[in-house]
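ok trying this again, last paste got cut off
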Amino acid sequence: MSVRTGTAGTTRTTVDTLSFATAGSVDDGKSTLVGRLLHDSKSVLADQLEAVERASASRGAEAPDLALLTDGLRAEREQGITIDVAYRYFATARRRFILADTPGHVQYTRNMVTGASTAELTVILVDARNGVVEQTRRHTAIAALLRVPHVVVAVNKMDLVGYEESVFAAIAEEFTAYATGLGVPEVTAIPISALAGDNVVEPSAHMDWYGGPTVLEHLETVPVGQDPATRAARLPVQYVIRPRTAEHPDYRGYAGRIVAGTFRVGDDVTVLPSGRTTRISGIDLLGEPVDAAWPTQSVTVLLQDDVDVSRGDLIVPSAAAPALTQDVTATVCHVADAPLTVGHRVLLRHGTRTVKAIVKDIPSRLTLDDLSPHPHPGRLVANDIGRVRLRTAEPLPLDSYADSRRTGSFILIDPGDGTTLTAGMVGDSAAGATACGR
């Protein structure tokens, strides 16, 4: 728990919140794990549990299928798989949680990028009978690419291998070596049975050889990452407010959601990409003036000088402004069915700003089996991870993704139909620095 200063003479208290995602190959038990977490932590409402019991009975199941707590789409329930990112919110006495249950099928790998992009921890499930498979490696590479600081490998279905310690140890060793090679900073291995509840919320009576935490214990105690309020301040402008009423004839405010850092009245700021400098004369939050604001508050900032500011501009501290560039080098995950090729003309969306761009080069594609770079592939197809070089029509204020996951990321869009093509991370990512080349 932390305390921050708000308006003069007041304080605001925040409770730690952990955002985490689950991933793994199809049928590894991700949804069952999430359902078990919700059920055993008493985070399921009575009517939800009754609905799951009815749905399970209609399918001939003898016990409630806890995976149905997260598999909300009809197609998912009928097939017993997850095809969309299912978000759930729950809390214990120690922490609040935002979880994203992501799909396991190869064709839905792109959904993991969505689920893990804001996660501070990823739980990657491995079926104890199958060990580390290609989809395990792909999800691990994405976690490294997105710089998720904490990765848990949950070796599931231990009940189906007799709770053998040697099976768990071999998988944990192989996974840890692979993740470390990608640059994942922290790996925690936990043997579980999501179906039986072993080591999910309660310690297992069948694995006395394991002395580590349960999944929930780890989620409750893992350190939450660096407070984004301590980073250089960033405010992407979403809307210019000019009421022009008798009460506010000259009011001109710039509204947006703070993605990093703290803004205070009196701060010297720069508006990018124009480079004009001024000073914050006021900050409005929920219609009331405040002295300071921080992530993830939606605010309206008033500036001392009448400078030209519009949607897509970025307000930053003058002393910590990012450099403007039209040449972008990034690690990307391609998510569209149509390939991304050299010479491809795209739209690049960074924050609230969208500019035209062209793919100048694709230096490498990551080979997941041995983490080697495949040089100059010429194109990226769906679910490929690689490096790209772009040239934008207008200069952009880009941070490195290593410094800011918010202002160091972007997406590429098809200008014809608006389809999202690629998710990009500016600069060297963990996966890019170690395997994709530069």
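PB: full thing came through this time. The CA atoms of residues 263 and 293 lie 5 Å apart.
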